[in-house]
Amino acid sequence: MTLEPEGPELRRIHDDRVRFYLDNYKAIETWARIRSDANKELHELSLSMVDTIAQDVLARGDTGIDVRADDLTNPRKPRVVLARRTWRPSDGEGEAPAAIVIEWHNPPIDKRGEFTMYVGVRVGDRDRRDKRVAKYLSERAPRLREALGHPWLAESESFPVWRWVLQEGDALDELAILETARESAWRCWDTCAAVIDDVLRVA
Amino acid sequence: MLTEEWAETFAVMARTWERIGATGRGDVAAWDEQLTAMRAEQDRLTRMGRWTRGPADLMSVAGVHRRELAHSAVLRWLCDPAGSHALGAAFLEQLLGATGGVTDLLHDAEAATEITRERSRADVVIRGNGWTVVAELKIDAGEMPDQCQRLYEDWRTEPQPRFVFLTLSGRPPLTATTEPARRAWQCLSWSEISQLLEKAVEGRPGAATAVQEYRRTLHALIGRRLSHP
Predict the structure, then answer these.
(1) How far apart (Å, rounded) are the C-alpha atoms in residues B89 and B196?
(2) Cross-chain CB nearest to B171 (options A30, A37, A54)
(3) How many helices (H) and strands (E) does chain B have?
């Protein structure tokens, strides 16, 4: 007695997109692995903004501004930090309770292809945040956002004032992104630094 | 009545699905063309030996290529005329030449890192007969409060002191707060250090492998490809 095959007949996958992937999966996966190298380069290039912004500080003639890169406090969210030296605790040690920050995710491009960078006023990590400074800044944030206009209209707990730095189109132009971040940081500084001065005086 | 509504809903869904399908098929046809172009570009890069993965120098592989401490250690080594780099005083001569002129008796020079004084800590200090170079290195780190002013104050009474501030762009320090200190600090970029090392290596085929390695690191740091490995 011969056994008849049971169940549905095995057929090739017909979905065009899946077919395309399966027919070319080696090349696609080889190319996808470039993302980790690209991310490393993007991260280091972003860190290098600290030097460019330090040149801006010199050009502005305001050497009371401290600029530094920080990829150790939270390696998954490295940042370039601009703060007045007077914003730091009086002993000169430790973080300023508020600062203008360019922050990005590390890796900058995730597996879905999203690039993440943002600029704004940062009030410190939750467990180390000066709550009074955060509260005062949060109260003043709507006016600051209004003064900055689009695209500074979002709000968050850590960033009372902030905006995304987004890449438009299919290609990622790293220099255009960093230039946007730098310009945004200074725009944020020019609008918010005096308010941070006031808040730190009151708090 | 309910069945009629369902029929209408299904018809809308079917039309939407058909539209999505057509778009998807259009995308896939375009992808084929893009894939062909990308394959050709990959082949071209492979033929040129440029389809490689990851860094090509040990400092980058070890993840210390942006750490000032690691660079201080290498620069100290390169500035030691008796160092095992086999460059003799060539790199030190280049560095001195770029920061105010070469002095005599370089072979007596001694270099050290992380020298602490009353108010400051110098990254690299090179001392010779009647001269001193104090170098502060920056890549990602910012300047500490009054850092370059304090370094200047701590070292300005040394014999013929030279203060070298080394950054990616070759910018002046932000923390030299007095006019004499601002004047004293000479600025060099990592790109210039790379050029000085290239000149020091010229005509010295016996330079240590570690020198070649560091050339790779500097080229990666400043974003250039080493032309002759």
Answers:
(1) 12
(2) A54
(3) 8, 5
With a cut of 50, say whether residue B228 has pLDDT above it: no
Q: Phi and psi for A104 in degrees, rounded to 5?
A: -140, 165
Count of C-beta atoms within a 10 Å radius of residue A151: 12
**Is A158:A122 a contact under the CB 8 Å cutoff?**
yes
Distance from CA of B54 to the nearest CA of A (A): 6
Q: Six-digit token pair at B138?
A: 């920056």
Q: Report which residue type is found at B119.
A: R
Beta pairing, strands B131-137 & B121-128:
antiparallel
Q: In angstroms, what separates the C-alpha of B42 from chain A's closest C-alpha?
A: 9
Q: Which one-letter DSSP state was computed for residue B75? A: H
Residue numbers in B near A31 (CB within 8 A) = 38, 42
A156 touches chain B (CB under 8 A): no
Query: What's the pTM?
Result: 0.81
Domain assignments of chain A as residue spans, ordered by start? 36-202
SS3 B63: coil
Alpha helices in chain B (DSSP H): 2-47, 58-61, 68-79, 90-98, 147-155, 179-184, 190-201, 209-222
Closest CA to A41 of A182, A164, A177, A183: A177
State pLDDT tens for residues B43-94: 888 888 888 888 889 999 999 999 999 999 999 999 999 999 999 999 999 9
